[in-house]
Amino acid sequence: MQFVRITSIDDPLFAKMHAMMQRVFPADEVLEFPKWADPLKDDGLRVCVAVHEGEVVGATEYRYYPDMNVAMTDFTIVGKEGLSIGRFLYLNRKADLERWARRHGKTPLGMFAEIYDPYRAKAHAFGGIKPMDPYVRREVLSHLGYRRLDFAYVHPSWTNTGGAVSELDLCFLPTDEGMLSLSAVLIASFLTGYYSVLANKPAAWHEMIELLQREQQIALKSL
Length: 223
Hints:
Elements: E1 2-5, H1 12-24, H2 37-41, E2 46-52, E3 55-65, E4 70-78, H3 85-102, E5 110-116, H4 134-144, E6 147-149, E7 155-156, E8 164-165, E9 168-174, E10 181-183, H5 184-194, H6 203-214, E11 217-221
């Protein structure tokens, strides 16, 4: 299996990856095909696929923010069972992020991820792929060490229509397993920058950011 970075929408692997995303994720979680052109060129973003026998069988998108010393896993897709794709993506992403941080003389504080709450995301079939089932994914990510940030989380729809998506929790994988909370200001700063590409944000998102800016720390809870 190969771990391949995609840097252009003209790469045939990108079309395969985007089609896989559309099969697996709800529409408001998938950026339109042409709007990927500029992000893929950004050296601060990694969009990588797992290629097995010429086919895209998995994908992950992630980034590292040197100024905040945190990473973000935008998504991880396991498109086929029985190939240990999740483990393959995890190890390659982890190694790349560690190299990335070392170039800045740092060890990452940890990594954010939006994780579906299976009790609120029951309507999604996730392409009928069992490893993508929200119950399975949540337990796997819990095993990896992700913990839920204890606040009511919403995010703007990637369709950029101003809708609010509230079926996910914002979670964090701390490098220090003894960490019990995370700076609320850091979370607000991260989310403000992360969603700056979307012009239309719901009122609930702005209210959430204002609430975070008034807090000191947000507890890390079990998934």
